[in-house]
Specification:
63% helix; 14 strands; 58 helices; five-stranded mixed beta sheet
């Protein structure tokens, strides 16, 4: 390190120090570079004094003298930049040098001293100039600000402006850097994303320095390569950061501070004692701390918790506010918290790695898991409104057990607010009334805007001279007994009227007496105090604005949150006159709300949801309780009915634009309506239409149980009023059929449809649109049940009727044609499906235009069809056209748009464009969560797809999380036996099989099989798929007889139900080929493969992926039969087909390249083999990453090749890499891991490292025996290898004999006496005897 100092002549010169000799005390300069800076050479040569930059060096030296520091450092001249090695070392050390400096002087060339000798010249412009200084925009100055403990800022004149502490607020505003980062907190406490965000406004003169200037900020090192460009430098920096993160196994947990959704604190005063007590209890070493604030409603618990959070926000890495008033409120805030975490911490493991909403339980688990991570100890959770705790004696089914939402790790801080004194969690603080008169008067003064109520601290003499105003205010404050909500309400009233406080006090006392007579059951003094203040306001409201008073009374029949104009615009002539007047226009409605707001009764609603229609208003829960118990002391059945009519009539049609946005806004009011309906709190007939609409609302929002309740209520009313055969009754029956279909209750659905069909035929005739609609629905149902014959009959019947009644080009006709296309596509009758889709497309384009959503739906279906046919380019064209059209017609967030986005994700998976696929799935997931909610079936479909994607990317933990989330959501929404639920169970089985968790996989497959047999029947495609996969699993477990039984069952039922040439039948034949190959029944295997190949070529075409897979497996079979020429032909055909269909870099293509390498090894074409392996390895590393299982397979193969080429060092490197990767990805006992262990044994044996070889073989043998059994061929191969090893040592020949005999016996049983392995064992034994 070169440092500057003054010599005896007063000249500045350089002194060089190395390692521990570097002085402990020195000053360091931070500045912005100009065009005329002094260089290292200038200082060495004694020149440069005439340069402009010399002034800064002199300033630094003189200031260091004043601070008694001998040495000082300036970057312009203390680094020899001609020496690239020295420059690189300096850049990598710079953060450490700044951190070690005793003083850092920031020289601001563009900030002038704001004071004259006698006065401030321009204070305000100075602070503006300071915050706008160029120094805050340069890349290198970031670490120069953060690293040093002491940073002093100087003007261009060399005058001290302040230091990092005194100027902290201005620095934070100028840079966006949190105060705690400036105060010396470890940078590891801030997320990578947050640290990078500090550089957004910063620039560097050299492009690469944008990355190099951050080395110290992330505590990493890397070589400097000037000329590589900013992008490459940043990429290398990211790689180093990732390595460091993995190496330390520490994570960043800082979340940008936000209390979105929490109420604002307008009239908060005092509570210093409680705040201090909370701080004392919550501070600590990171272990769990809980404070429970309990007290009356309206006492200020919520405001106190928010005040604490804002006051101490810098002490916490993350602060989250949860509204735990009820499950729905908690759900909304949990989703927001999950999104906050994902937005600030992309590395978090969330359902969605997601943007993340999910099934409610999944969100809870994901948030809890993140909060439980090691080192994530500095968070604060606020659970607000915990007023319905689950405890002994509380039989309310909606009561909540808060402990279920605590993270499992005993860390972090928690604040709970509750009215219940029975909640005994952590340190309990009773939030009492305000005892200090000064505090009560301050609330009154702030709320009433009457500033004369309080004069601060008063002496005894001043108290003797109090004005009448003071005395009245004190009497009122005393009467309101220190209740903040009552004081705020009284203040709001006084703000609206001209009466004196004494008059208000008189009104209050009269209200108290009246309230005591009206509601003797109110035994709480505090409730009566609050209710009295509201009652006074209400009397005034009745006089001032009758509409406001009526609205407040009406509010009791809705949820207390979010009432808006359009909701109440029932527009019925029978509505009360006051409601018609209130809702006739925005002016009237908002005017009435403004009056309520002025009296402190109402506030504008704060919502995180997308807003549709006008803004809403909310009232405090305590005020809402008063409207119910006092204003509506006698339940008004007419108002209850009117509220249900308002909500029911406002349910949007499914054809409306983005109906789900309004549906979700209505849900909380719909829940209130359902409660009133189910508890007989409304009277009178004629409400069937409202119940029916509420059923539609719940069905669309995937709340199927609530939907069924409303439909059933509507059905009862309609049957009673209209008769069982009325068309409106039958509409309800039909919708119940739809509901039961969605629930997977197919038997109940069929009963509903059959009843609706019979009734509509009788009432409307067989060719009526409604009748044919039910026929079409039956077709859909039968198709789901795999009753293909009946389904086709229904579709054809519907189509014939619609063509006759409506014409061939009518929309309903085209809908049925489209459904037939879907039906044929599901059966792999692709030509018929294509014909149906193209007919639908032509009709819809002609009638509706190319951009209509129904036209786009058919285009999307054609895309699906092309995917099934492996015409992936055509499929992408269709999807892109559908996507562009939907975005234009419906917007980017419409569910139809998102369905196409999801389909593009599926396509990109097929094309191996996995990053693009993930982008599509994440977009679809985020949009569906927002539009439909985290538990909607369509949302869970995308979650399931993400699971499959992560599985293919070898992100097995993330895949399992997605599947588990999808499973939990589907079990909750659809039930454990629904086909969609069983699909996820099935997918989990596949995942567990890939992870070698074979027992868990078998459990999943068995559950899926049993469920599908029950729901769909033994011959359904999905059932047979489960049978096939069980067969595959048994084959992997070497349970070959059980595997064959499964395949026989699948084949027999598939041929009978689906035909000889169905793709599922051919898939079973193909699996038989694999099984026979395993059993060494090679002729039978070839017959199966040839049959499968012929069938797939006919059904799917010669270039379909499934066809090429069979070609590929035939290649493997021929290789095993030593028919190497035939094998090469198959591989080359598969390779050419995959390259054409999927591209040269697709994993299936690379698998074929890898197998060609294996073949060339067998042919002893070792150079060709290496070329194949290197191509496969490079492609897999790029597509899948260096640690993916398939990549490691090729690494292992390269090890085998290098061993054959006698490149033993290279071979060992490959084996060690494969072993480390497989142990990490699959575990030490996985078969693939043990295969590499075995290979290392062979290598060590060839190197004559006999001890190491034996260790490897013994490890491999123990693991393989445990995993596959003692008689598996892989076990026997390792036994044979041990025999070879022991035969090299004279004292172990008996052991060798035992190994050979065991191998021989096992081979003869497993593969037959004629197999090459059996012959090898016989020969080895013979050689051993001769020896």
């Amino acid at each position: 390190m070169h440092l500057l100092e003054y010599n005896d002549d007063g000249e500045i010169h350089l002194a060089t120090f190395i390692g521990d000799d570097i002085p402990r005390n020195y000053a360091i300069l931070s500045h912005t570079w100009g065009t005329d800076e002094v260089t290292y050479t200038d200082i060495k040569d004694g020149t440069g004094k005439n340069k402009a930059g010399y002034t800064k060096i002199q300033f630094c030296g003189e200031q260091a003298k004043r601070d008694s520091l001998r040495y000082f450092w300036v970057d312009t001249c203390c680094i020899d930049k001609r020496n690239s090695t020295e420059l690189a070392e300096a850049v990598n050390s710079m953060f450490r040098w700044y951190r070690a400096a005793t003083k850092c002087y920031v020289y601001l060339l563009d900030v002038s001293w704001p004071y004259s000798n006698t006065s401030i010249l321009s204070a305000e412009p100075f602070w503006h100039t300071f915050r706008e200084s160029r120094w805050f925009t340069r890349g290198w100055t970031l670490q120069e600000l953060i690293a040093p403990g002491s940073v002093d800022f100087f003007s261009r004149e060399g005058k001290l402006l302040g230091n990092k502490t005194s100027l902290e607020k201005d620095i934070c505003e100028a840079t966006g850097i949190p105060a705690k980062a400036l105060q010396g907190s470890s940078l590891s406490e801030f997320s990578v994303t947050e640290r990078i965000s500090w550089t957004e406004r910063r620039q560097t003169a050299i492009a690469e320095d944008r990355a190099y200037s951050l080395l110290g900020i992330f505590d990493v090192n890397m070589p400097l390569i000037y000329g590589e460009g900013r992008e490459k430098a940043t990429k290398r920096l990211r790689e180093e950061i990732d390595k460091a993160m993995k190496g330390t196994r520490r994570e960043d947990f800082s979340i940008t501070f936000s209390l979105s959704g929490a109420p604002d604190i307008y009239h908060f005063v005092a509570r210093e004692k409680e705040l201090a007590e909370m701080h004392k209890e919550l501070q600590g070493d990171g272990s769990r701390r809980i404070v429970t604030l309990h007290g009356l409603g309206g006492i200020g618990k919520t405001q106190l918790s928010i005040k604490y959070a804002k006051q101490h926000k810098d002490n916490y890495s993350a602060i989250f506010w949860f509204n735990i008033k009820d499950k729905d409120s908690l759900k909304q805030t949990l989703i927001k918290v999950a999104k906050q975490i994902i937005r600030n911490y992309p590395a978090a493991s969330f359902p969605s790695s997601i943007d993340t909403k999910a099934n409610f339980d999944e969100v809870v688990d994901a948030v809890k898991a993140w909060l439980s991570l090691p080192n994530n100890t500095r968070w604060l959770l606020i659970f607000d409104n915990y007023d319905n705790p689950k405890m002994a004696g509380n039989k309310d089914p909606s009561a909540i057990d808060i402990r279920k939402f605590f993270p499992e790790s005993y860390q972090g801080a928690i604040i709970i607010t509750t009215r219940s004194s029975q909640v005994k969690l952590g340190h309990c603080i009773k939030v009492s009334k305000l005892l200090d008169m000064h505090d009560s008067l301050k609330i009154l003064s702030n709320a009433s805007d009457r500033k004369g109520l309080i004069h601060g601290e008063q002496s005894y003499i001043q108290k003797l001279n109090l004005t009448t105003l003071d005395i009245d205010a004190r009497l009122l404050a005393k009467e309101l007994d220190g209740l903040p909500l009552a004081l705020a309400t009284a203040g709001a009233y006084l703000n609206q009227v001209t009466i004196g406080i004494s008059e208000y006090l008189r009104l209050y006392k009269a209200s108290w007496v009246k309230l005591q007579q009206m509601t003797p059951e109110l035994d709480s003094y505090e409730d009566r105090t609050l209710y009295s203040t509201w009652q006074i306001s209400f009397y005034r409201l009745e006089q001032q604005n009758r509409l406001s008073a009526e609205l407040l009374r009406f509010w009791a029949y809705f949820n207390n949150q979010d009432i808006w104009l359009e909701l109440l615009q029932h527009n019925s002539s029978s509505d009360p006159k006051w409601l018609q007047d209130l809702t006739k226009d925005e002016l009237s409605f908002h005017g009435a709300m403004r009056v309520l707001s002025n009296y402190g009764l109402v506030e504008e609603h704060v919502s995180s949801q997308q807003l549709v229609e006008s803004r809403g208003y909310s009232i405090h829960g305590c005020v809402h309780a008063w409207t119910i118990h006092v204003l509506n002391q006698e339940w008004d059945y007419d108002l209850a009915r009117l509220a249900i009519e308002c909500v029911g009539s406002h349910v949007p049609n499914r054809q409306d634009f983005q109906p789900w946005v309004l549906q979700r806004r209505l849900l909380q009011h719909a829940a209130k309506c359902s409660y009133m309906v189910l508890n007989c709190m409304t009277k009178g007939a004629g409400m069937d239409w409202a119940y029916y609409n509420l059923g539609n609302l719940y069905a669309d929002q995937d709340k199927l149980e609530a939907a069924e309740q409303m439909y059933q209520r509507a059905l009862v009313e309609r049957e009673k009023a209209l008769g069982p055969d009325h068309t409106l009754t039958l509409d309800t029956v039909n919708n119940l059929g739809n509901l039961y279909t969605d629930q997977g209750e197919f038997k109940a659905a069929e009963q509903m449809y059959q009843r609706a069909l019979a009734g509509r035929k009788k009432a409307l005739g067989p060719d009526h649109i409604s009748t044919l609609n039910t026929v079409n629905n039956l077709g859909i149902l039968y198709s789901k049940q795999n009753k293909f014959k009946e389904a086709e009959q229904m579709y054809q019947q519907a189509l014939t009727g619609q063509e006759k009644t409506l014409g061939p080009d009518h929309m309903s006709t085209l809908d049925t044609i489209n459904n037939l296309g879907n039906f044929y596509a599901d059966q792999s009758r692709f030509d018929k499906a294509k014909h149906m889709y193209q007919r639908t497309l032509a009709g819809r384009e002609k009638a509706l235009g190319p951009g209509h959503i129904l036209t786009l739906e058919t285009i999307n279906n054609l895309g699906n069809l092309y995917v099934d046919q492996n015409k992936l380019e055509k499929a992408e064209q269709m999807y892109q056209r559908a996507l562009a059209g939907n975005e234009k017609a419906l917007g980017p967030d419409h569910t139809s748009t998102l369905d196409t986005v999801n389909n593009l994700g599926n396509l990109y998976v097929d094309q191996n464009k996995l990053e693009k696929a993930e982008q599509m799935y994440q977009r679809a997931l985020a949009g569906k969560e927002k539009a439909l909610g985290p538990d909607h079936i369509s949302t869970l479909d995308t979650v399931n797809n993400l699971g499959s994607l992560y599985k293919s990317q070898n992100k097995l933990k993330a895949a399992e999380q997605m599947y588990q989330r999808a499973l939990a959501g589907r079990e909750k929404s659809l039930g454990p036996d629904h086909t969609s639920t069983l699909n996820t169970v099935y997918n989990l089985g596949i995942l567990y099989a890939n992870q070698d968790k074979l027992d868990e996989a078998e459990q999943m497959y068995q559950r899926a099989l049993a469920g599908r047999e029950k729901a769909l029947g033994p011959d359904h495609i999905s059932t047979l798929n489960a049978v096939i996969n069980l067969g595959v699993l048994y084959a992997e477990q070497n349970k070959l007889e059980e595997a064959e039984q499964m395949y026989q069952r699948a084949l027999a039922r598939g041929e009978k139900a689906l035909g000889l040439d169905h793709t599922l039948t051919l898939s079973t034949v193909y699996n038989f080929g694999i099984l026979y190959a395993k059993q060494n029944k090679l002729e039978k295997a070839e017959q199966m493969y040839q049959r499968a190949l012929a069938g797939k070529t006919k059904a799917l075409g010669p270039d379909h992926i499934s066809t090429l897979n069979t070609v590929y497996n035939l290649g493997i079979l021929y290789a095993n039969q030593n028919k190497l020429s035939k094998a090469e032909q198959m591989y080359q055909r598969a390779l050419a087909g995959n390259e054409k269909a999927l591209g040269p870099d697709h994993t299936l293509t690379l698998d074929t390249v890898n197998n060609l390498g294996i073949l060339y090894v067998d042919q002893n074409k070792l150079e060709k083999a290496e070329q194949m392996y290197q191509r496969a390895l490079a492609g897999k590393e790029k597509a899948l990453g260096p640690d993916q299982i398939s990549t490691l397979d090729t690494v292992n193969n390269l090890g085998i090749l290098y061993a054959k080429q006698n490149k033993l060092e290279k071979a060992e490197q490959m084996y060690q890499r494969a072993l480390a990767g497989r142990e990490k990805a699959l575990g030490p006992d996985h078969i693939s891991t043990l295969d590499t262990v075995n290979n290392l044994g062979i290598l060590y044996a060839e190197q004559n490292k006999l001890k190491e070889a034996e260790q490897m073989y013994q490890r491999a043998l123990a693991g393989i025996e445990k995993a596959l059994g003692p008689d598996h061929t892989s076990t026997l191969n390792t036994v044979y290898n041990l025999g070879l090893l022991y035969s090299k040592e004279l004292d172990k020949l008996d052991k060798a004999k035992d190994m050979y005999q065991r191998a021989l016996k096992g081979y003869a049983k497993a593969v037959g006496s004629e197999h090459k392995w059996t012959f090898d064992a016989v020969e080895a034994l013979s050689n051993l005897h001769q020896a």
